[in-house]
Design goal:
With 90 residues, the chain is an all-alpha fold. The chain has helices at residues 2-21, 28-52, 58-65, 73-89. It contains 4 helices and no strands.
Length: 90
Amino acid sequence: MEGVSLFHSVVYTSLLICAFGLGDPEPITFILGLAHGLLWIGMSITSLISLRFHIINLRLAVAIILLGCVAPFFGTLEFILQSRRKAAVA
């Protein structure tokens, strides 16, 4: 999930660049927007299932599900922070 979250952040950044920086070129903006939406839906479903089976914690699930639709950077950042916390404990 961490890798997909990072990829989702790259897709979203590309969407922002295309939509606002390059003057909204079609169909690239549409494809990136669709990819962002589908990735968010997939990550949300996966997060709910992972939360149910105690694979991820509630904080990470909230970052992915609630904040990921606006900016997937929150989920990616939370993955990185949790990885660092686990490494510090070990």
